[in-house]
Amino acid sequence: MNRAALAMFFLLAATASNEQLAREGKTRQDASVKASVEITIHAPAEKVWRVLTDVNHWPKWQPDISAAEIHGPLEAGATFSWTTGGTRIESRIALVKPYEQFAWTGKAYTAHAIHVWKLQQRPDGQTSVKTDESMDGFLLRVFFSSKKLEETDRRWLDRLKAASE
Q1: Would you list the domain boundaries of the chain?
Q2: Which of 27, 29, 58, 155 measures 20 to 30 Å from 146, CA to CA?
Q3: Please, which residues have CB within 8 angstroms of residue 147's CB and are 6 or more apart in sequence?
Q4: CATH class of this structure's domain 3-164
């Protein structure tokens, strides 16, 4: 097997593995870049879910995202594309458990990511939201760190909170 074929084999294997993990609501624990962040939102899970899963409206409340478009209904297997920081990302929804879990995989250049969101309705009417994300790819660690990913995910949660409350 030549180098190009071998590289393609590992790329396809990583993509399949990422999709399986995302379907299980998990991220890649051995990823070179990963983050986990939580927040409490003073709104019911149904409202937070509506804001979070309305992909086409992400740019309205998440200024880091300049464009977002879902291609089909909100269900496992649907794809969406979005642009953040000038980078276009192609994503595939892997898990949709209304009001509880939402997960997708994403690809941009040689980077592959898994993003998992978990919502938990609290008895006091608030919602706990946790996001876990992992990223891997050629030279990714050189250009992006777990600390930077954590900061980015913290902004997502802060803005989700503001849009939901």
Answers
A1: 3-164
A2: 58
A3: none
A4: alpha beta
From first to last of its 165 residues, the chain has per-residue pLDDT tens of 444 443 444 444 445 588 888 999 999 998 999 999 999 999 999 999 999 999 999 999 999 999 999 999 999 999 999 999 899 999 999 999 999 999 999 998 888 999 999 999 999 999 999 999 999 987 777 788 999 999 999 999 999 999 999
Handedness of CA 109, 141, 78, 46 (dihedral sign): negative
Residue for token pair 């890649």: 28
Name the CA radius of gyration of the chain, rounded.
Answer: 16
- Taking the C-alpha atoms of residue 52 and residue 164, their distance in angstroms, rounded to an integer, is 9
Pull the structure tokens for residue 137.
């790819």
> Which residue has 């919502």 as its token pair?
119
pTM (2 decimals)? 0.87
